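[SOLVED] Predicted holo structure with S-adenosylmethionine

Edit: marking solved, answer below. Original request kept for reference. I posted the sequence and ligand SMILES and asked for the 3D complex as structure tokens.
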Amino acid sequence: MDLHDYKDVAENYDRYLEVMYSEFDAHEGFQEFYLQLAKKYGEGGVVDIACGTGAVLLYLAERGIDIDGTDLSEEMCKVAASKAEKMNLNLNIYPADMTKFNSGRKYSLAVIARSGFMHLPTSQLQKEALLNIREQLLPDGILTFNTFDPWPAVQTGQMNTTPEDYTFRLEYVNNNGNKEKIYNAISYNPFTQHMHGNWKFVEYDEAGNVIGERVRPLLMRETYRSEIFLLAELCGYEVFDIYRGYLGDKEDLSDPMSAAKYRSNLIWILKKK
Ligand SMILES: C[S@@+](CC[C@H](N)C(=O)[O-])C[C@H]1O[C@@H](n2cnc3c(N)ncnc32)[C@H](O)[C@@H]1O
């Protein structure tokens, strides 16, 4: 299966995410966070980039925010669009790569929620995305995305595993009404900063027999905060704010050691220069 083939994932994404995040949710509070951001910066229109099945897009649209959605995966866009239709929301949701998208309109706020930016596997592609998004923003427009501070203890563990060393993650009921178990295997390459591996979905019938198995590759890039500062400068943005998680405090931008104190989901707020 291709890395960006979300065909089978799209239909089940909301279902297993709900179970996954019921135990620990590093993104807790994300929808409300983006709503407040949209109220503050979104008066010229908002675009939800890598919108997936629409968790942010639909939440904001339902609350009166003027918002478009785009995602690389056609299947994810289709799921988001069908949810929008059921909610009687008439939205512009289009498949596109964030390094290239151009809807023909400009936005005052661009959102990349819940780790969409980490799916860009090289700093070159990160740069291309930041430059393209800048073009789609109005003057003084805001871009927000998140990165996790790499945490050596975790990455060291992942360096000792292979993409086939599966760990059980969760069990849920899929869109066929069948029990499905999810396993993942993640390795880390410290030179490319890639987290790469596989997600395995094993489907069972009522009698407990395995009736299907799908493996989906995973590739995400860990990015150090110093890289984001450099990329922002290179691509014409000012680092305006950084939040430590969606419920978190603001980072002290003048304290270079703050990364050493906290393991953080950093929410970057960049302003177009
Ligand atoms: C972790 S999901 C997050 C989805 C959504 N933002 C949410 O909060 O539920 C990442 C999404 O990024 C999309 N994606 C990956 N690479 C992309 C790219 N280059 N351009 C646009 N979307 C991309 C995937 O298709 C997937 O839907």
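OP edit: The chain is about 30% helix and 30% strand. Thanks to everyone who chimed in.
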